[in-house]
Amino acid sequence: MDHGSAESQNAIALLKTAKGQVEAALRMMEDDRYCIDISKQILASLALLKKANQIVLRQHIDTCVKEAVQNSQGQEKIEEIALILDRYMGGPGA
Description:
The chain has 3 helices and no strands.
């Protein structure tokens, strides 16, 4: 994966924003703020993490998996993705 690509930079920005939101949620908890406000902050950070993960997985498919398939080594990469999807969706490998 090219960590200098625009997609990677977008994922990095999303992760940094999510980090800030998690830190804000933590401060809100420590300050005994309203539970619904804290929950909204947590949900916002989860949405950013999900989007960043989509970018990372898409880049993995576009680069690593594509290269592995071209070199007749695609099965291992396919299994890696299947395990990630199982975890994401709560399947057997979760």
